[in-house]
Amino acid sequence: MAAPTTIVLLVVVVLVVAADAELPQLEHPPSKEDRSLTLLAVGDWGRRGQFNQSLVAEQMGIIGEKMDIDFIVSVGDNFYKNGLTGVDDKAFEESFTNIYTAKSLQKPWYTILGNHDYRGDALSQLSPVLRNIDSRWICMKSFVVNAEVADFFFVDTNPFVLKYWNEPKDSTYDWRGVAPRETYIANVLKDLASALKRSKATWKIVVGHHAIRSVSEHGDTQELVQQLLPILKRYQMTDPEMTEQAIGRSGGGGVDGAPVL
């Protein structure tokens, strides 16, 4: 297994769409001489400061300063309980801008959607209007962050989960730009496989809202076990059996330079 390598990224982000790639690519080149990278990852956070969100944000600011972080990864469920109502929803500022005020957190937030985000106006979180309000906000459904020694592959896992389509209960999901489900999933998997195959980075980190394997009350996400895990084994892992055991034990970890957040 390759030795862990850390790198630092520039705050300036350049969007590049390769001619043979469908997933948007964000170039975030290293800036420090030692090519180090430090980051924080967070999810299930948007609660207008309640449910300990403000306390966690304070600690993130402290740790972020100590670690001299380069960016933050948000794995979804950004705004509870039903996402945003639109680009003018004050929840964006009340749950994000006004909460994560520490100087160390004034870095890019690479963000994907969770199932609660799809219960509102999902497209509003992707809108450039929000970035005009807060320039840290970088949100897309699926994309890649290229950071030289580390590539981050953000995958929209929500459409994979069949119960959101067939058993939504009292929730309404915003599937604009997603339906038909089968076509969307096929394209995501194809584009992810292509991006993984092209990647030359030492570390390949796949980010999604849903765990593939989990010992929590939610359990495994069977749709991801069946459809996403085989691609990770094919392009990321040197030993598929070892990979599945590692993911099963940790609920989201990986081996041989290919962790799964």
From TrEMBL:
What residue stretch is flagged as signal peptide?
Answer: 1-21
List, for all copies, the residue spans of the domain called Calcineurin-like phosphoesterase: 38-225
Q: Pfam families under this entry?
A: Metallophos
For this UniProt record, the keywords arranged alphabetically read as follows: Hydrolase, Signal
Source domain of life: Eukaryota
Single annotated GO MF: hydrolase activity
Which PANTHER family does this chain map to?
Answer: TARTRATE-RESISTANT ACID PHOSPHATASE TYPE 5
This protein is called what? Calcineurin-like phosphoesterase domain-containing protein
Q: Which organism is it from?
A: Panicum virgatum
Organism lineage reads as:
Eukaryota, Viridiplantae, Streptophyta, Embryophyta, Tracheophyta
